[in-house]
Amino acid sequence: MSKLSLVVEMKAASGQRQALVKEFLDVLPDIHAEDGCELYSLHLAKEDPDLIVIMEQWTTAEAQEVHAKTEHMNALRERTTHLRSDSASLLHCEPAQD
Question: How far apart are CA 73 and CA 43, in angstroms?
Answer without folding.
Answer: 18
